[in-house]
Amino acid sequence: MGMDSDLFCEGLVRRFGSNAAVDHVSLDVPAGTFFSILGPSGCGKTTLLRLLAGFDKPDQGDIHIRGERMNDVPPNRRPVNMVFQHLALFPTMTVGDNIAYGLKRRKMPLVERRKRIARVLEQVGLPDLEHRNPQELSGGQRQRVALARCLVLEPTLLLLDEPLGALDLKLREQMKVELKHLQKQFGTTFVYITHDQSEAMVMSDQVAVMRDGRFDQVAPPEELYREPATPFVAGFVGDNNRLSGELVSVRDSLAELRLDDGVLVQGRVASDNLQAGHRAELYIRPESLVLSGDALSPGFSSMQAKVRTTLFDGANSRVEAETCGQPVYARLPQDGSAPRLSVDSSIRLAWNPSLARVFGAESL
Ligand SMILES: Nc1ncnc2c1ncn2[C@@H]1O[C@H](COP(=O)(O)OP(=O)(O)OP(=O)(O)O)[C@@H](O)[C@H]1O
């Protein structure tokens, strides 16, 4: 790890005027990792990627690729390739010539070039399309050619800037899975930026959640989902309900909260800024809320809520209810066991406190 990683950065800062678009970011990406940087628009993802590619220079901090310091190495000398959202394949060149372009510039002999092109097209599942033009391909095929064109150069790092952003929903869903398979097959280290949490979650080995130029948390997808380190991560990654109230007490690792309608509920302590008498927020996922009758499982917390509507969406069907003037969502089982819920009826939603996370309200 550390300096031996494919990508290792320490304390990267990039300022525009008084605003730090990248604000002390450190990262450590071992070889063969699918690493995503996930964050909302304007959080600094593109700025960070440009530093890695060498299109821009950090004001502070160091970038190492496979142990070599890159700060003063120009983009074309870095072992890095980049795939953009609007991938520019050369429209008048065949697929084969598009892929050959970078190899030619490296002065690779024709015979070797032919071999590499055939192999990479095979690997991306397009063995017969070498002589087509890009406009004779589907969107997904074009995407795969763009990847093949980069991967054939065998970069240490492939940087991907929202490459699925321009595709329609169905194709995007399919390409997510395909990209993940391709990355594993090639074993190339991917650094992928996106604002789409589902993309990041499905594909990545590690996800860095970025906000205001900083990383809030770097973890595998499942850990981000189950153990979000900050309220921002809890709210940004996957669906979550947020209930706010006043902290009553903390015992062992359980926090007790008084919601604004007076109900006492519990969840696991998730931050070290919890103080009795201060505001706190409890996050509980829709699938962790159960519709409960009179018999409450021992140790469970519960609250009353009023049904607003039910939202049918197959396995992701939910009820939208209201408590303390706030919407709450609970997953509805679709095996026929879900009760019929009429609008304005009162329901009880219960949860195992170990599945809820309690943060102190952030002082901004
Ligand atoms: N050349 C520049 N000059 C001044 N400010 C800039 C420049 N480039 C980016 N910024 C600012 O830096 C911040 C981060 O921008 P950046 O493009 O990195 O965000 P992003 O996360 O990639 O957003 P998006 O998902 O919308 O592309 C923004 O506040 C942006 O306005």
Automatic annotation (TrEMBL):
Q: Which UniProt keywords apply?
A: ATP-binding, Cell inner membrane, Cell membrane, Membrane, Nucleotide-binding, Translocase, Transport
The cross-references to Gene3D superfamilies, in alphabetical order and at most eight, read: 2.40.50.100, P-loop containing nucleotide triphosphate hydrolases
Q: Where is the ABC transporter domain?
A: 7-237
SUPFAM superfamilies in UniProt: MOP-like, P-loop containing nucleoside triphosphate hydrolases
- A single GO molecular function term of this UniProt record: ATP binding
Q: What is this protein called?
A: ABC transporter ATP-binding protein
Q: Which organism is it from?
A: Marinobacter adhaerens
